[in-house]
C-alpha cells in the first residue's frame, strides 16, 4: 500500500506527480527544484541560494513524512553545469553528517525543469 505525502511547506507539484510516496518503510521523493513554496517563484539569486531552497523544500517533504535527513539513504543530484559541483556540494553537505551521509550520484544534464541549475531527489527509510 502506498501513502501520498504532500505538504504546503514545499512547492505544489507542477504536473501529475506527488511530492513523495511512502510505501512500506521507504519514502521516495520527487525531485525538488528551487521554487519558493509560498510564492512559487524560483530562487535563483546564486547557486548557493538555489541549492539551499532545494534542500529546504526537501526538508519539508521529509518532515511531512515524519523523517529527517538522517533517514535518507540515497540522493540523486542533477545539475546543469558540473562547474557548480563544489558550490552545490558545500550547501548540500550542511544538511548531512559526513560520517552517516547517504549514498549519492551527481549527474550533469542538458536541461532541468524551468531551466534551473539543480534538482535533488531522495530515498529515505522510516
Give the SSE layout.
Layout: E1 2-5, E2 20-23, E3 26-29, H1 47-64, E4 72-79, H2 85-93, E5 103-108, E6 118-125
Parallel strand pairs: 4-5
Antiparallel strand pairs: 1-2, 2-3, 3-6, 4-6
Helix pairs in contact: 1-2
Characterise this structure:
It holds the Pfam family Ribonuc_L-PSP. This is RidA family protein. InterPro entries: RidA (IPR006056), RutC-like_sf (IPR035959), YjgF/YER057c/UK114 (IPR006175). Belongs to the RutC family. The protein has a 6-stranded mixed beta sheet with strand order 1-2-3-6-4-5, with helices on one face. The mean pLDDT is about 95. It has one domain: 60s Ribosomal Protein L30, Chain: A. It is about 20% helix and about 25% strand. Helix 2 links the parallel strand 4 (about 70-80) and strand 5. Helix 1 runs parallel beside helix 2. It is of the alpha+beta class. The chain is globular. The protein has helices at about 45-65, 85-95, and strands at about 1-5, 20-25, 25-30, 70-80, 105-110, 120-125. The chain starts with a strand and ends with a strand.
Amino acid at each position: 500500500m502506498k501513502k501520498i505525502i504532500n505538504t504546503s511547506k514545499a512547492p505544489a507539484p507542477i504536473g501529475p506527480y506527488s511530492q513523495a510516496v511512502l510505501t512500506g518503510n521507504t519514502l521516495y521523493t520527487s525531485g525538488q527544484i528551487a521554487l519558493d513554496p509560498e510564492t512559487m517563484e524560483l530562487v535563483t539569486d546564486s547557486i548557493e541560494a538555489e541549492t539551499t531552497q532545494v534542500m529546504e523544500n526537501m526538508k519539508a517533504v521529509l518532515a511531512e513524512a515524519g523523517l529527517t535527513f538522517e533517514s535518507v539513504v540515497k540522493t540523486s543530484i542533477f545539475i546543469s553545469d558540473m562547474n557548480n559541483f563544489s558550490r552545490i556540494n558545500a550547501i548540500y553537505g550542511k544538511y548531512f553528517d559526513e560520517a552517516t551521509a547517504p549514498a549519492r550520484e551527481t549527474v550533469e544534464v542538458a536541461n532541468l525543469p524551468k531551466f534551473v541549475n539543480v534538482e535533488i531527489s531522495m530515498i529515505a527509510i522510516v
